[in-house]
Amino acid sequence: MKQYFSKEERERRSISMLGINNPNFGSTEKFLNTMAKRRGANHWNWKGGITPNNEKLRKCLEYKRWRRAVFERDNYTCQFCEKKNEVSGQLQADHIKPFAYYPELRFELDNGRTLCIGCHKTTSTYKKHFKIYKQ
Description:
The protein is 41% helix and 7% strand. It contains six helices and two strands; from the N terminus they run H-H-H-H-E-E-H-H. The chain has helices spanning 7-18, 28-37, 50-59, 61-73, 117-121, 130-134; strands at 91-95, 112-116. The termini are far apart.
């Protein structure tokens, strides 16, 4: 059974999840100042602003259309093991020639294939593009 909370309870929980009432911060103002200091280039995991460009590309309408077109062309079936999975999100649209190395082929239908997560991990290019950013 799904549990519903009152508006007051949701607000209370939201504030507590932010850590505003955390004794390490003391006050809301101190918490917000601390968080502001950890944004952007001041954050310990900052990598020079590379993530937003990659996210923009992968969240754009053209990418979503390409992904759907690859799934529809392959009939929502993994091209390696032939598992069919339309709903559960176990399929991924894989670029045959890597997304990072071939920007001109990013949205070419012929450069895509449908793979299940397990088969995608066996490809030689799986997560290889992360090496570009580590240089």
